[in-house]
Specification:
alpha+beta; Alpha-Beta Plaits; four-stranded antiparallel beta sheet; 4 strands; globular
Length: 175
Amino acid sequence: MVLYRRNRVAGGTYFFTVTLKNRSSSLLVDRIDDFREAVRYALQKKPFRIDAFVVLPEHLYAVWTLPPGEHDYSKRWGLVKGHFCSRLVKSGMQLRKNARGEYDVWQPRFWEHTIRDDKDFAHHVDYIHYNPVKHGLVTRIIDWPYSSFHRYVNAGVYPPDWGGEGQDWDQEYGE
């Protein structure tokens, strides 16, 4: 098995891109309650802090901070992915399995970036929140319901009309 090089910083903060295998699917938003329950399950089993999150139809972006002394974000994503699939199967959905016996719902891995400083953190959080507009799902960020943007607005970090015209979003973030 190939050992993928991942930067593991105990107590670190990370940006993630996680994708369904079927890039034309809308499973994540169609089954948002199952996905939310999968995240709650992972939080209960292996705690972490969700700094920012957006769920799009077939992929998602997140910024997580792990507890001091911990660096195993892969285990946490495994819990989210596995529990989501389990909930789908329990609901009666027929899911194919791959050659390894895993449900063929998710791309096998994910993209990760270790957040370096406050500027990097703010940059990635902005990117996460702007993504529903970038992908043409809504014209105003506030209209996308599956985002931590609403939490940031309620906390006074962003105004409700944040992310309008004139912002530069042509940077690479691991898609």
